[in-house]
UniProtKB/TrEMBL annotation:
Domain Major facilitator superfamily (MFS) profile: 1-446
TM helices/strands, residue ranges: 46-65, 72-93, 99-120, 132-150, 162-181, 261-282, 298-318, 330-348, 354-374, 422-444
Protein name as it appears in the record: Major facilitator superfamily (MFS) profile domain-containing protein
GO cellular component, one term: membrane
SUPFAM superfamilies the record matches: MFS general substrate transporter (SSF103473)
Family classification: Belongs to the major facilitator superfamily. Spinster (TC 2.A.1.49) family.
Length: 479
């Protein structure tokens, strides 16, 4: 949620501000980031998309490292980069310095977006998987909405730089948690525990050494690990390991992209995010210009908080109620998006602020109902060991083809036609494309692969006998 509070804060009028404006011989001073750095709308849109650089590079790396490293430690590393990056945003001095910091912010999202969802999917009750995912993805609209309010209040009183520094301070406890929390093992992976504990402290190695110091064969065919001395680093061995990793990654990507259900789902998600991303960034500014809202940040923040919570949770609970299957997910996705597009399009046709609020609220509830089902399809249409990669590819795709180009493009269109109502109507019409993709998904043969074997082909019975990564007290109890 704090990650998306940052997204909302930089889009708020209190932080983002407005350009210097001159008309009739008089000039008004600008405010916020746009005023201080004198940014055009197109440049301003780049700030909303810059995080994608860090996300694109880091998410695939984190998804690959999750096979051999504790995911919570990886999340801790990513959030540590995020903390320094947001602090850097507050200390930036021009367009390029804040753009670079926004790029690094994407590393934080990359660290958990591909790992948190599989963790939730592993631990959620079978009958409530989509509802649990809904609670997690509810943080997207709620975080953005809180960011509007937070940015409007803090930016308006203490200045836009203070808003970024406040976010950085708030994230510190979560960074610490990522490094100290008990190790995590995801379904579909047999993590290398030697790296987590060290060779002599590795529970599996200790179990293979009896009181006389005799070493026995380990389940994976590895013998005498405790007696081996780590080899020194060499560039040739590093290069060989890197090529091996690239080979595994290429194989996984090929297997992932052969899943038609996954591809169609992501295509719909890209179209959806193209619109929602621009809504979240340009919404307060467009609302202020079209309907002359006095407190556009608070207005959009309040609407999005309420509609985001209701819509996201409702989508998850309804999907569980009708049956957590991939075809039912596509039915919910296509129906909710189509109806939501109609209401949102109609909302921008109203000249009355009250008519806009009513129709836009209904539209937002409907479009936010897609958050849990769309990620359910991403997790269940592929094999378990591909889930972190599927979430990474999905996230990268919806950003690099969705909200990353949409915010600058909408800013460019607005610079050309100078009419926020027309710009908003053109943008909203793209939601119908998302509904069409998800409608097609209903007719594509699908299989829920959640219960399939892991990439190491460990039978379920044997997997249940593997010693979990427990702390000392739990380990003694289990012994």
């Amino acid at each position: 949620m704090l990650n998306y509070v940052d997204r909302g804060a930089i889009a708020s009028n209190g932080v983002n501000g407005s350009r210097k404006n001159c008309s009739g011989g008089t000039c008004s001073s600008g405010s916020g980031i746009q005023g201080d750095f004198d940014l055009t709308n197109a440049q301003d849109g780049v700030l909303s998309s810059a995080f994608m650089v860090g996300l694109l590079v880091a998410s695939l790396i984190f998804a690959s490292l999750a096979k051999r490293h504790n995911p919570f430690r990886l999340i801790g590393v990513g959030l540590l980069v995020w903390t320094f990056a947001t602090a850097g945003c507050g200390a930036s001095f021009d367009f390029w310095s804040i753009t670079i910091c926004r790029m690094l912010v994407g590393v934080g999202e990359a660290s958990f977006i591909s790992l948190a969802a599989p963790f939730i999917d592993d631990n959620a009750p079978v009958a409530q998987k989509t509802a649990w995912l809904a609670m997690f993805y509810m943080c997207i609209p709620t975080g953005i909405a809180l960011g509007y309010v937070y940015g409007g209040l803090v930016g308006g009183t203490l200045g836009w730089r203070a808003a970024f520094w406040g976010e950085s301070i708030l994230m510190v406890p979560f960074v610490i948690l990522g490094f100290v929390i008990k190790p995590l093992e995801l379904k579909g992976f047999a993590h290398n525990r030697i790296k987590e504990y060290g060779q002599m402290l590795n529970p599996d190695v200790q179990d293979q050494i009896n009181n006389n110091g005799t070493k026995h064969a380990m389940p994976g065919g590895i013998n005498d690990l405790a007696g081996k001395v780590p080899k020194k680093f060499s560039f040739s061995r590093f290069g060989q390991g890197l090529m091996t990793e690239i080979g595994h990654f290429s194989k996984d990507m090929k297997e992932l992209l052969q899943e038609k259900v996954f591809v169609i789902n992501v295509l719909g998600y890209i179209s959806y995010n193209f619109v929602i991303g621009s809504y979240s960034y340009w919404g307060p500014k467009a609302g202020q210009q079209i309907y002359h809202m006095v407190s556009a940040d608070l207005m959009f923040g309040g609407i999005t908080i309420v509609c985001g919570i209701i819509g996201t949770l409702a989508g998850g609970f309804i999907h569980d109620k009708v049956g957590s299957t991939i075809p039912n997910a596509f039915r919910l996705l296509s129906g909710a998006t189509f109806l939501g597009a109609i209401f949102c399009f109609a909302a921008f046709c109203f000249k009355s602020l009250y008519g806009f609020i009513i129709f836009f609220s209904i539209g937002e509830i409907l479009v936010f109902a897609t958050q849990a089902p769309v990620n359910f399809v991403c997790l269940h249409s592929i094999k378990p060991h591909l889930r972190p990669l599927s979430m990474a590819v999905s996230t990268v795709s919806i950003h690099i083809f969705g909200d990353v180009p949409s915010s600058p493009l909408v800013g460019l269109v607005q610079d050309k036609i100078n009419n926020w109502r027309s710009t908003a109507l053109l943008l909203t019409s793209i939601l119908f494309i998302a509904a069409v993709f998800w409608f097609i998904g209903m007719f594509v043969p699908s299989v829920d692969r959640f219960k399939e074997e892991s990439e190491h082909a460990i039978p379920a019975a044997d997997r249940s006998n593997l010693r979990p990564l427990l702390d000392d007290n739990e380990a003694r109890t289990s012994d």
